[in-house]
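Below is a filled-in request sheet from our internal design queue. Each sheet records the structural input a requester submitted and the sequence that came back. We keep these sheets so that new team members can see what a complete request looks like end to end.

REQUESTER: design group, bay 2
PRIORITY: normal
MODE: inverse folding
CHAIN LENGTH: 393
BACKBONE (tokenized):
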């Protein structure tokens, strides 16, 4: 009870003055999300009100709600039924429902009163505005992000209230493993119309091939409805030169690391390069002759039919792309072809010696077998084999 009496003596007469009942407008503070509704209720602490006068700080004219002969009479701006719904309850209580609160009503002040002098408390409106969208953009709008070079990405929010918070994430496109990388960002605000705030967050990060094809995106949170709004994602596309070349030959691998094939066998060469973008891959033979080449690829192969001794030697695979600086990435192997020894082409020589002296008869053959001293020599005299001391050099 706020009612109290004061006693005055006027001309020796005791007069009691009673403070009138207060007019209450509830709630005292309206916190509403944009596009929602809110109801203001006007009443007297004790007793009833026959007629209420309503004021809205955004509207010059006043409005009235009066309960008369069982009817609720509405005047002034409350006649706009698209925005307001005034009600009289017959017990001296009145209410106004604001049907669709928008951002323009933030800070609005309302009062109701029974007379010009008997006004209620002031009710203020705090209108929260969720972020509607968030845009993400790579400032250097190129197809590829260079590996180990700082990349700058910007995230901008729509105007909202209260101040938005922006977070940054990297998410694996398949497993959905997600990393929070917000610590690598800075955030600033700009004041927009209707006292709303828009946020801009700048992310700087150094990409590497580990995150190729991951999704980079930002989220904005305004503490309005505990719901995050995500931007579209940028597919991380990290470029790097071929740094590893895998080169294989379809034949037996010796303990020494050489590949061994038999004379007349078909031999295939396979080469794969790891790079982004894809590489130009070239395979060259033992004479540095190009066997095959293919551009914009990760893999190339080539098959030599009926290899012979002449095909033995070093084979090399080269890979390069637009980021290659200096020499290409390479891998090489030795191919050994097992084949019969071939005599070296020389003219016939006659050897003259003294009777009883030692004679050395030289014979040279190409020996491309996979090992030393595996070629056997047999000498013949008039189609008869000789037992002689043999020295393989």
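RETURNED SEQUENCE:
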């Amino acid at each position: 009870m706020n009612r109290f009496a004061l006693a005055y003596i006027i001309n020796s007469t005791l007069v009691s003055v009673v403070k009138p009942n207060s007019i209450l407008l509830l709630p005292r503070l309206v916190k509403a999300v944009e596009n929602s509704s809110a109801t203001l209720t006007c009443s007297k602490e004790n007793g009833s009100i026959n007629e209420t006068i309503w004021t809205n700080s955004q509207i010059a004219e006043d409005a009235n709600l009066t309960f008369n002969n069982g009817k609720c009479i509405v005047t002034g701006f409350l006649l706009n039924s698209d925005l307001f719904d005034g009600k009289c309850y017959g017990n001296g209580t009145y209410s106004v429902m604001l049907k669709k609160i928008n951002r323009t009503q933030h800070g609005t002040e309302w009062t109701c009163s029974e007379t010009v002098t008997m006004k209620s408390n002031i009710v203020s409106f705090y209108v929260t505005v969720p972020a509607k969208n968030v845009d993400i953009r790579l400032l250097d709008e190129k197809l590829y992000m260079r590996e180990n070079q700082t990349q700058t990405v910007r995230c901008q929010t729509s105007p909202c209230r209260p101040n938005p918070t922006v977070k940054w994430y990297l998410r694996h496109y398949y497993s959905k493993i997600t990393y929070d990388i917000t610590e690598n960002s800075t955030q600033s605000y700009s004041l927009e119309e209707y006292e709303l705030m828009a946020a801009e967050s700048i992310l700087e990060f150094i990409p590497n091939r580990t995150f190729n094809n991951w999704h980079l995106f930002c989220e904005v949170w305004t503490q309005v409805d505990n719901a995050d709004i995500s931007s579209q994602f940028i597919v991380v596309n990290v470029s790097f030169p071929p740094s590893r070349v895998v080169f294989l030959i379809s034949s037996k691998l010796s303990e020494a690391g050489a590949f061994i094939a038999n004379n007349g066998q078909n031999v295939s060469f396979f080469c794969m390069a790891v790079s982004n973008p894809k590489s130009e891959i070239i395979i060259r033979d033992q004479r540095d002759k190009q066997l095959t080449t293919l551009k914009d690829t990760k893999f190339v192969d080539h098959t030599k039919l009926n290899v012979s001794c002449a095909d033995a030697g070093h084979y090399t695979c080269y890979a390069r792309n637009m980021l290659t600086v200096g020499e290409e990435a390479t891998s090489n192997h030795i191919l050994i072809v097992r084949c019969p020894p071939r005599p070296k082409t020389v003219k016939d020589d006659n050897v003259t010696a003294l009777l009883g002296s030692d004679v050395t008869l030289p014979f040279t053959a190409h020996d491309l077998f996979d090992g030393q001293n595996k070629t056997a020599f047999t000498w013949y005299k008039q189609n008869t084999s000789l037992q002689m001391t043999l020295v393989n050099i």
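SHEET NOTES:
- The first strand starts at residue 5 and ends at 10.
- The domain at 241-393 is CATH 2.60.40.10 (Immunoglobulin-like).
FILED BY: M.R.
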